[in-house]
């Protein structure tokens, strides 16, 4: 299977380095992506928006030309969902890593601080305690060293969707910060942030208990969860 790995904010393709070997060893073709504006800390980010990130993923889907599994971490989940909306016939499954599908008109995160027309990695104090579970001082230093500012539009642009066939694309939620049972309960309670997820016809749940960055804190466990999701595709 062709697996496209979509990083979340502040991260490039290298953020998947500790996850990809296990996927490749299992015989899969893995494409970790660096999204537009995330090529380096000095890259030009002005004018780059959410649609540019979606376009980049769709181009790779078209290049591959066959069924793919999309894996989206954090803000990359919104990108993965929109790419599945554009190419529902080409996506065998979407795997959301501590993330979920963003519905029509939704914003990934319009509360992140903008500095010099980009979004740098904020101070750790801005994050919830659940985000930072298992993120040791050493891992935080490594994260800070590699962090790349995110284009403003990736967080502040509204999601635009077109094709209801996206709800036919199976999904797997890899729950990290909060157990999947809690997420299922939120869906049952009609929590607004679960509205789009509730419309997907086939959803599986896997738990990797840790913080918001399992590719750093639990890479082995994350890789095994992705493999389980791909096997279901």
From TrEMBL:
Which keywords does this chain's UniProt record carry?
A: Hydrolase
| Superkingdom of source | Bacteria
Q: Which Pfam families match?
A: Abhydrolase_6
- Where do the AB hydrolase-1 domain residues begin and end? 3-225
Q: Extract the Gene3D superfamilies matched here.
A: alpha/beta hydrolase (3.40.50.1820)
Which InterPro entries does its entry note? Answer: AB_hydrolase_1, AB_hydrolase_fold, Sec-Metab_Biosynth_Hydrolase
Q: Which GO terms describe its molecular function?
A: hydrolase activity
What name does this protein carry?
A: Alpha/beta hydrolase
């Amino acid at each position: 299977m062709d697996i496209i790995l979509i990083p979340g904010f502040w991260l490039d393709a290298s953020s998947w380095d500790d996850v990809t070997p296990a996927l490749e060893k299992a015989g899969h073709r893995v494409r970790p992506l660096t999204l537009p504006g995330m090529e380096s800390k000095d890259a030009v980010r002005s004018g780059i928006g959410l649609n540019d990130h979606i376009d980049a993923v769709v181009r790779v889907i078209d290049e591959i030309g066959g069924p793919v599994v999309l894996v989206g971490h954090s803000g990359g989940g919104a990108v993965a969902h929109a790419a599945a909306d554009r190419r529902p016939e080409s996506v065998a499954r979407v795997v959301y890593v501590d993330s979920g599908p963003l519905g029509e008109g939704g914003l990934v995160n319009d509360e992140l601080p903008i500095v010099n027309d980009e979004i740098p990695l904020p101070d750790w104090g801005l994050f919830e305690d659940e985000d930072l579970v298992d993120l040791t001082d050493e891992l935080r230093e490594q994260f800070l060293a590699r962090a790349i500012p995110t284009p403003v539009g990736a967080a502040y642009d509204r999601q635009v969707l077109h094709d209801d066939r996206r709800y036919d694309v199976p999904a797997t939620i890899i729950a990290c910060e909060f157990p999947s049972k809690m997420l299922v309960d939120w869906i049952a309670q009609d929590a607004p942030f679960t509205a789009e997820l509730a419309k997907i016809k086939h959803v599986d749940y896997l738990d990797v208990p840790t913080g918001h960055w399992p590719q750093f804190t639990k890479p082995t466990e994350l890789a095994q969860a992705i493999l389980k999701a791909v096997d279901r595709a």
